[in-house]
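so my prof wants the structure for this chain in the tokens format not the other one, which i didnt know existed until like an hour ago. anyway here's the sequence
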Amino acid sequence: MAIIGSSKVLFGFFAAFVLIFSIFLPTVQGQESFAPTPAPASDGTTIDQGIAYVLMLLALAVTYLIHAADVPFGV
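here's what i got, hopefully its the right format
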């Protein structure tokens, strides 16, 4: 039982250590100010890629339906 209790205490110290450093460590790095990121803009490639995916899925479905119709049943 002593091993289980000491491992819980060790885990508690480790958790407290991680929590303290996760709170205070970012403030040590300084007051750097970064330039704001520009707003995301779509140049049409995302839309084109989405249309291409839909057309490929449509072609796959049509191909499946055509080949499923060629299979003879009951022979």
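also thought this was worth mentioning. Helices lie at 2-28, 45-70.
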